Amino acid sequence: MNVVALAAAEQQAQGSLLTLILFLAIPFVFFYLLIWRPQQQQQRRREQMLKSLKRGDRVVTIGGIHGEITGIKDDTLTLRIAEKVEVRVNRSGVSYVKGKEEA
């Protein structure tokens, strides 16, 4: 009788350990699939967009300035924002490249 009670207690302890592991793993999987992974994908797309900038691209900066890239030097872009008006911005300051249909 004592052995049966001991075996039942051991079975219950293993079940509660498995339940604890599941309760810890489910939120981790949830956060990975809904937060971390999409954020990493978005970061990769942004890095690719910044690397592919070229002369003539029409861009919008993070500050909302619209312009056309007239020069690229290392990490600095020269944008023409009006006739005879050019500004220098960091490459990381570009929010997005305007598509051909938006130009």
UniProtKB/TrEMBL annotation:
Membrane topology of this protein: Single-pass membrane protein
Matching InterPro entries: Preprotein_translocase_YajC (IPR003849)
Keyword line: Cell membrane, Membrane, Protein transport, Translocation, Transmembrane, Transmembrane helix, Transport
Subcellular location as annotated: Cell membrane
Keyword Protein transport in record: yes
Keyword match Hydrolase: no
Main subcellular location of this protein, as a coarse class: membrane
Transmembrane segments: 16-36
Pfam families named in the record: YajC (PF02699)
Family stated for the protein in its record: Belongs to the YajC family.
Protein name: Preprotein translocase subunit YajC
Annotated organism of origin: Geochorda subterranea
Name of the gene: yajC
